[in-house]
Amino acid sequence: MNVIFWDTETNGLEKTNSVLSISAIKSSFIIDGPSIVSSIVERYERFYFRKSGEALGQKAIKINGLTDEIIKQRRSDAEYPDYFGSDIRAFRLFCEDTKHFVGHNIFYDMQYLNFSLPLIFCTMKANTKIIGLKRKNGQLKFPSLEETAHFYGIELDKNEMHGSMYDSLVTYQIFGKMLEYAKTRELVLGFLKKGAI
Predict the structure, then answer these.
(1) Residue 8 contacts residue 22 (beta carbons within 8 Å)
(2) Is the pTM higher than 0.85?
(3) pLDDT digits (tens, 9 = 90+) for 172-195
(4) Sheet of 35-47: strands edge to edge?
(5) For the residues 34-57, what does the mean pLDDT come to?
(6) pLDDT (tens digit, 9 = 90+) per residue, 30-43?
(7) Positive or negative, the Cα torsion across 47, 162, 174, 113?
């Protein structure tokens, strides 16, 4: 089966903010008894400008670094539309052969899509109790991608963090580690076996 690991970078946290980049890794998973083999088969990465009249989201851009100039460089000679809203069909086509979708805080990214995803897995929510980080008030907190990667012993390049392709790759690595970890293996297997033929 195919599983897509994906992420967006945006101009702010609201649904009305522009998507500045979207990336996805399509991976093939083969389950043969206790053995599970995965390999990356395709990548998708695109960059977009802010919608006309939308102010630069200073806080968001400070984190993801996607200034207008950087987006222009990343797009280079791109032949796809300037704005995500005009190009969302391309991502939908990329997703057509896949039922399983994984993201870190996937519910945030899903708000920017105009189509539904059949089966979803959130590595952030799935690891909240496993990692057990707490806020000052004692309540459990959702672990960031960096905190989750650290828990599973994944070495990170902090210069690449908050790039949608790199974050998609880290999510893929976390998912793989969850398959190896006794406390999360059955949860991940249960997700992969849903809808399997």
Answers:
(1) yes
(2) yes
(3) 999 999 999 999 999 999 999 986
(4) 35-47, 19-32, 2-10, 100-103, 119-122
(5) 94
(6) 988 788 899 999 99
(7) negative
Alpha-carbon gap, residue 4 to 129, rounded angstroms? 24
Each residue of 100-114: pLDDT tens digit? 999 999 999 999 999
What the chain holds in terms of domains, given with CATH numbers, is 2-193 (3.30.420.10)
| CB half-sphere exposure, 95, CA atoms < 13 A | 24
Residue listed under structure tokens 């309540």: 139
Cβ atoms of 104 and 124 within 8 Å: the answer is yes
What's the first-to-final CA gap in the chain, in angstroms? 9
Contacts of 191-194 with CB under 8 Å at 24 or more apart are: 191/100, 191/119, 191/121, 192/1, 192/3, 192/29, 192/31, 192/36, 192/100, 193/31, 194/99, 194/100, 194/119
